[in-house]
Each structure stands twice: as C-alpha cells, then as structure tokens.
Amino acid sequence: MTTTTPETARRDPRGAEPLLSVRDLTVTFKRQGEDPFVAVDGLSFDVRPGQTVGLVGESGCGKSVTSLAIMGLLPDRGNTVTGSVELDGRDLLTLSNKQMRDLRGSDIGMIFQDPLSSLNPVVPIGRQVTEVLERHKGMSRKSAKPVAREMLHKVGIPDPDRRLTEYPHQLSGGMRQRALIAMALACEPRMLIADEPTTALDVTIQAQILALLRELVEEMDTALIMITHDLGVVAGLCDEVNVLYGGRLVERGDRHPLFHDPHHPYTGGLLSSVPSLEGDAAERLNPVPGSVADNLPWTSSCAFAPRCSNAIERCREETPAAVASGDRVLRCFNPLGGQASPAESEEDRR
Amino acid sequence: MSTAATEPASDRAKGDRTRGDKGEVLVDVQDLKVHFPIKRGIIFDKVVGHVYAVDGVDLQIRRGETYGLVGESGCGKSTLGRAILHLEESTEGTVTFDGQSLTDLGGEDLRKRRRDLQMVFQDPMGSLDPRQSVESLLVEGMKAHGIVGDAEAAMPRLKQLLSDVGLPAAALKKYPHEFSGGQRQRIGIARALSVDPELIVADEPVSALDVSVQAQVINLLADLQEEYGLTYLVIAHDLAVVRHISDRVGVMYLGGIVEESDAADLYANPLHPYTRALLSAVPVPDPDVEDTREQILLSGDLPSPANPPSGCRFHTRCPWRQESRCDDERPQLRLVEIDGTTGSHKVACHYAEQIASGEIQPHDVETQTEDKPKELREAEGDEVADDIPFT
Ligand SMILES: Nc1ncnc2c1ncn2[C@@H]1O[C@H](COP(=O)(O)OP(=O)(O)OP(=O)(O)O)[C@@H](O)[C@H]1O
Ligand SMILES: Nc1ncnc2c1ncn2[C@@H]1O[C@H](COP(=O)(O)OP(=O)(O)O)[C@@H](O)[C@H]1O
Ligand code: SF4
Ligand code: SF4
Ligand SMILES: [Mg+2]
Ligand SMILES: [Mg+2]
C-alpha cells in the first residue's frame, strides 16, 4: 500500500544497558588572539540499542560539534574535548585516530545533511559501498558486490544494478541520501549518527527517508542519534529528546511528555512559535523574542534570560543546574511546569 | 471577487501614487513559460534540450492579498517569481501588472515600473552587499527612483523604515555582518519597502532563519501588509508557513500549477493527489498526530524538468493514476466544485471528483527510474560538476 501508519506501540528500549554513554562532553575552540569559545558544555546522555535519541536546538547550539566529537572528526588542532564518550565501556576520546577510523563505518555509521559532499564524486556508488565492506568486513570485492547491491535495494534505490555503476552527480538528492544510508548501514553498525539527514530534502522525499530510517533502526536494533532543528521530525521519530541551548542541555524528556508539557521556557517557546497545519491560521504567531546573539554567558547566568518570558532577577545572576527527576531533566529557575532548578555549585562545574 | 481592470498606469500622477481597490486583479499571468536551453559543446554551443522550468502558468494575484506558492525544490517557484518581476526572460505568455503589460516593457519604462515590484530573498546575507552600511543600502533604491535627493533628506524616511521593521535607529551606521540572520532579513525587507512598492515577491523569506525567529519575520510581514496595503507573492516550501500567511495558495509541480484555492480550503480539502501527498508528508510537532496519521508515501523522485512526463506530469508517481487519460492528456487547471469547497477551488486532475468521492481508490505505484536521453544526463552532470548555483 502507499499509505502507512506508524505503529503506535513501539518497543520500549529503556530497560536495556546503554550502548553509548556521553558524560560531561565539553568542546572548547581556541583560536589565537580570540577568547576560548565553549561550543558544547557539559553534555551527558545515553543511547540504548533500538533507541532513537534526538538532539534539537537552533543553529549554533552545538549539535554538529557534538556529533563530530563523538565520531572523533573534530580537527586535531584548535580545540579541546573533555569528558567521556563510552561505547560499550570503551572511551572513544582516548582512542587513536587509526582506532577511530576503524570504528567509523563498522561500529558507528554516520549520515550528514549534504550527501554530495560526503560521497566521493569520482568513484561509482557501488564501489563506495563495496569499499566499506572490504575495509571493515574483510570481504573481497567480488563477494562484496552482491551485498552492496542488496543494500541499495534495501534502502529503496530502484534498479540497483544500474545505480551501482553510476556516479553521485547522476543521482538525485534523495537517491544520494539513500546511497549514503546504504554505505552507513553496510556493516550493520550498532550506532548510527544522523546530522540533519533530511534538511536538504523535499518533504515527500524526507517522508521516504524517515520511514526508511525508522524501519532499519527497528529491524537492526540500531541505536540512533538524530540531530535536527525540525520539531516535527523529532515528534515522529525520537524516543527521547534533548533540547540544547547555547551548547548546554536545557531540557530532556520522552517525546510525549516533552511535547505536551514542556517545562523549559525555551522548549515551550519553540513549540508555540511554529505555525501549524491545523487550528486557526489567522491567529498571530508567538515568536521567541530576540536571537541567540543576545545570549548571556552560562558561567554567571542563564544564557536564555534576555529572550525568556519567565526570566526573574536570579536568572541574570546565577547559573541554573540541570536536575533530573525521573526521565525528565530540566535546567531552569522559573520553569513553565516542574521543579525549579537550584543554582549550579562548584562541584557541578568541575 | 472583483476582476475589474485597473486604471492605466499613465493616469497615475508622479509622486502621488494612487492605489486601486483592494481585491481587484493586480498581477495577471497568462500561459507563462520559461524554458532554459541546455547547451553542450565547447566550440559549437549545441542546444541538446530544454529545462521546462515554468511551463504554462495562469495566475492572478489580487491587490492586498497574499498569494502563497508552494512546491518542491526545482518545480519552478523561483523562476516563476522572477519571471513575474521580469528578472527572467519569459519564453511565452504574458504578465500584466496593474493593467500594464510587463512583457513588452523595456528600458526606462521597465526601470520605473521596477519601483512597484520588489523582491525579498531567502538568504539575507547573500543578498546584501557586505561593504555597504545599512543606511547606504536603504538609500540606494530611493535615490535611483528619485524619491529622495540625498541621504540627509532621506533621514526621516530611513528612521521610519527602521522602526517599521523593528530595528533601532543605530542600525543605520552598521554593516550586514553585524546583525543576526533575523535582523538581516528585516534589513532586506526594509530595503524592499524603501521605494514604496505595491507588490513584494518574497522567495523563501524565512527558510534560512531559526525556528524561534521565523515567527518574528512572519508577523512583521503581516503587520507591514496591513499598514501599507501591500500585495505579496510568497514562495516557500514550508506548508505550515504558507498556510499561516496566505490568503490563497497555489501548488506547483514540475513547472505547472496543479491546485489553487483559498488557503483554508486547500488545507482542509486538498483535492489533487500531489497536494494530498505533500500535506500528508509534513512532519507535525505533535507526537500523537505523528503516531496515528496516515501518510501517503510517494515512490520515487521528482522527474527532471528537462524531461517531464507526458500527459499529467504527476502520473509517474500518482497513487490514483488511471489507465485512460492520465498518461497522455495534460489536465487543465479547472474549477472543481465539491461539497465543502469554496467554489474557487481549481485542480489540474482528470479525476478530481471521483477521487474526492472515493469512487477511485489509491493503488501501489511501481517506482520508475528515469531514463533521460544520454546527452541530457551528461549535460546535467556537467552542471553539477561545475556547481552552477540555481536558486
Ligand atoms: N538559469 C537557468 N538555466 C538553466 N536551468 C535553470 C536556470 N534557473 C533555473 N533552472 C532550472 O529550472 C528548474 C526550476 O528552478 P527554480 O529555481 O525555479 O526552482 P524552485 O522551485 O525555486 O526550487 P527551490 O525550492 O529549490 O528554490 C530547475 O530544474 C532549475 O535547475
Ligand atoms: N571548527 C570550529 N572552530 C570554531 N568554532 C566552531 C567550529 N565548529 C563549530 N564552531 C562553533 O560552535 C558552535 C556550535 O556549532 P555547531 O555544532 O555546528 O552548531 P549546530 O547546532 O548548528 O550544528 C557554533 O557557534 C559554531 O560557530
Ligand atoms: S533560568 Fe530563568 S531565564 Fe533561564 S529559562 Fe529559566 S526562567 Fe528563563
Ligand atoms: S490526472 Fe491522473 S495521474 Fe494526474 S493527478 Fe489526476 S489521477 Fe493522478
Ligand atoms: Mg549543524
Ligand atoms: Mg527557489
């Protein structure tokens, strides 16, 4: 059928042990003559097999830097990464470049926003998929070929035999993203990181790719980190959602409670500022005032205070701590709901 | 609905610009076509085909309304917008603005008319000269059209413009890079407003902005429309944004308009199979809706506008396609009356009525691979390799 309804009842992956544990991840960029810039600040989260964890927030909030740090793809110079990123108990931040290279493509797959720049323009699609298999699975080129063909078929590329011999520029944007997903999944990685995988695509193609991701994650029990600025994508795909602001986690929750009952004023502001497909179209939108350019430093305040409708005096004087209660994490002195956070203490900020 | 012709432009006294009545047709587009030649060869520029970017569009925009144009990448939205503003040479068809044909306007007459037709772009950074201060950006157009003599005389108007778009007067001395994306878009809007236009074509005015900032710019556009009686053509791929700001909406697919109606009606009763699929594909920021709604997943990709399918251009992906007519007869955009629609709902589908009544049910679609002529594929490959930006 051409119509689909996503299943309502999903398996709850929360019981399982985390596959990936990110603790206190902090990325600081330091350029000569400039003040150090903390792009990601003390971020912690877990991802379990079969679970999809979303990272959302506006541009510059540190989503891509987080994914690059996890995959060991930040430049060697000009930045420091602290904290830990444990995959199966092994801290990826301590691995050598070579060890990380082996891990990428085998244990961790990745998909980026712009498939054209992640594919090699002068190598046929088929070769690019077989190369991954040769390198990480030790297959011969001959035995890898049918597997590559099967992968292209699986991600919904029609006429895979022909496509195997084609170059990236001969494929449409949607087909390229599928090819990239085929490459990322060729070795059945346990962990997949997708950074805005559908942002450059049209909605009808986006729907195809999201359905594909949902299906593959389910089928292969892959742990997925989904990075996006699109709240709609998050609402449909992610089990757990992490909302970032200015490099810090400000709220975390399962998607249903988070969307229905946002506690953090930024989460609430984001949700009520987006125009909807239902309801009264003539109603005026409720924007979040200002822009990230107005942010205050986290070290002595809540960065969101200049834009926050709930801000109180304290917000400009102290840093709210991120506090967990149940599955919810919140960093706010005067939330829309839930418990107000205490100020961050010295121990919190080791 | 009023369709009375407007006074000829020559009747309008200079300086004191009279505007016609709200609701009359301001822009009238008839059978507009823009075909780009695909060239190949180094010495002999051989034309090996055409990109049928806009291929037979009829469209009326009424004074004071917002017409929203939606559709997927490459369907011809920007090209249509640019052709209406005469920024793109049209291959065939006519554009009439306020009773005057723009199609045969040239030289000085066209330059004067430009004042009435302004554009706001997607990328506020790319469309503002980084070396010009905000003041000089804003004064430029006003001087060119003889609205003000020099920057000093322009000062009161500049201050008004800035306050209109919600920027402090201190912004005048600053440069584009000193502003955030949303503020830059405000500058772009102020620049379009500076010459007191009648029509603003806004091509993806908010898609480069953060979600939290988009709403600010959408509200601003609405306020300015109210204040100055502006007419908008808003081009966007975000269906929720278009729903929110438009009075009427046209849906484009491969160079043609496949459905057009009042915004509320279009979203409540999408009649064209493509519109239905498009609406069902939009992710909604509500987990309950996401868990339960039915999606019409289209198979395959948008065919190339260089080699559009015969008959109904949507037939290669249409879940409702029928054996007869769909493959070989191009459906015209026609009024379709069905219970619950407004009577001005137009659809380009042979079977709109039967699909709405449920008489025709959707079926599986075999994904078709595109088989373009080899020369065309190679020519397109060159384009990608050279990275020619098409926006
Ligand atoms: N100057 C040009 N020469 C050749 N082809 C062009 C030119 N400008 C646009 N095209 C082609 O015309 C078609 C329509 O382009 P257009 O920019 O109007 O699409 P669009 O609907 O605005 O897409 P988007 O949503 O990506 O902006 C595309 O296939 C594009 O590649
Ligand atoms: N290589 C780099 N050097 C310096 N600053 C960087 C670098 N990469 C990213 N940043 C900065 O880090 C912040 C977070 O960036 P990023 O993670 O890319 O944001 P996003 O959430 O949009 O993906 C931004 O302010 C960005 O400018
Ligand atoms: S801490 Fe204060 S400023 Fe920050 S989000 Fe909460 S109420 Fe707003
Ligand atoms: S004319 Fe035929 S192919 Fe085209 S939209 Fe209607 S049913 Fe589908
Ligand atoms: Mg990013
Ligand atoms: Mg465009």
TrEMBL record, chain A:
Q: Name one GO biological process term.
A: peptide transport
GO CC term, one of those recorded: plasma membrane
Query: In which compartments does the protein localize?
Result: Cell membrane
Q: How does it sit in the membrane?
A: Peripheral membrane protein
Similarity comment: Belongs to the ABC transporter superfamily.
Q: Recite the UniProt keywords alphabetically.
A: ATP-binding, Cell membrane, Membrane, Nucleotide-binding, Transport
Q: Which CDD domains match?
A: ABC_NikE_OppD_transporters (cd03257)
Superkingdom of the organism of origin: Bacteria
Domain ABC transporter intervals: 22-271
Protein name (database record)? Peptide/nickel transport system ATP-binding protein
> Which one of the record's GO molecular function terms can you name?
ATP binding
Organism for this UniProt entry: Marihabitans asiaticum
From TrEMBL, chain B:
| GO MF annotations, alphabetized | ATP binding; ATP hydrolysis activity
Which key words are in the record?
A: ATP-binding, Nucleotide-binding, Transport
This protein is called what? Peptide/nickel transport system ATP-binding protein
Q: Is Nucleotide-binding tagged as a keyword?
A: yes
Return the NCBIfam families for the record. Answer: oligo_HPY
Return the annotated region ranges for Disordered: 1-20, 357-391
Segments forming domain ABC transporter: 27-279
